[in-house]
Write a structure and sequence with these properties.
6% helix, flat, mainly beta, 2 domains, seven-stranded antiparallel sheet, 49% strand, Jelly Rolls
């Protein structure tokens, strides 16, 4: 059975944003910017034992319908995030409540809303006394691929990218193994695309991916919605015309980050 994969790459926490404000105390080297800089190795440490707001004021109307979160696992259970938007002046409407997100790598959707220019997208962050670390959060419109993809897909959250070196004694007994963790990769393939979709939707996504910016990828949202990875493009193929005309093929290979173990 085919499935329409989804990606979340356009972040309205960066694009169309005139200012960003954090109501809590920031830690040097782990500032708020690390939560939305597309980089998974830099982290934002929210203030502990507090509820704080991270507000993004827009300078243009923006539509949002999803949130992707990649949180470093530190072993706590008291990090909660609520996504809100300013639906009217100084009035905030909740779009999603996400509890106990320590170690989460998630891609959640909601009914599309328009955030008007001059109003805010708000992340309300509640933390217990544990110091949590947020790798990346993207809020924006998700892209659902035009065609399904199933056969040949390697589900990117399953075990892969590991090489075992086995140690064997002189009499042939297995005495131990060392595990080398290598990169996790996945392949996004799209065939029989209409020319209009390839030129608008795919081109916008692949252009962003080829600039070195990360994105959330949900390979099978209907059957395995929790199987989500955070990716960087490794190789972006040039779209090409195929038969029957006028259809096209496109694809890319991505290096993926799985949830922390």
């Amino acid at each position: 059975m085919a499935n329409q994969s989804r990606v979340l790459y356009e972040t309205n926490l960066v694009e169309g944003v005139s200012s960003v404000a954090y109501s809590g105390t920031e830690i040097s080297g782990f500032e708020k910017e690390n939560a939305y800089d597309y980089l998974d190795f830099s982290t934002f440490k929210p203030q502990v034992s507090a509820t704080t707001n991270l507000d993004f004021t827009l300078n243009a109307d923006k539509q949002i319908s999803s949130i992707g979160m990649f949180i470093k696992k530190v072993g706590g259970s008291g990090l909660n995030i609520i996504l809100k938007y300013e639906s009217s002046p100084s009035t905030y409407t909740t779009l999603g409540t996400y509890n106990d997100v320590d170690g989460d790598l998630t891609f959640n959707t909601f009914g599309q809303v328009t955030v008007s220019s001059g109003r805010k997208i708000r992340l309300e962050i509640t933390s217990d006394a544990t110091q949590y670390e947020i790798r990346q959060i993207i809020v924006g419109p998700y892209l659902e691929f035009q065609r399904g993809q199933y056969v040949g897909v390697n589900p990117p959250t399953m075990i892969q990218g590991r090489v075992l070196n086995n140690s064997i004694s002189v009499n042939g007994a297995l005495i131990g193994s060392t595990v080398k963790r290598e990169k996790v990769t996945t392949r996004i393939e799209q065939e029989f695309l209409t020319e209009s979709w390839a030129r608008s939707s795919w081109e916008a996504f692949s252009s962003r991916a080829s600039s070195g910016k990360g994105f959330f990828y949900q390979w099978n949202p209907s059957q395995y919605p929790s199987e989500v990875v955070y990716c960087m493009a490794q190789k972006v193929d040039a779209p090409e015309n195929i038969s029957p005309t006028p259809l096209m093929r496109a694809g890319l290979t991505a290096i993926c980050r799985q949830p922390d173990e």
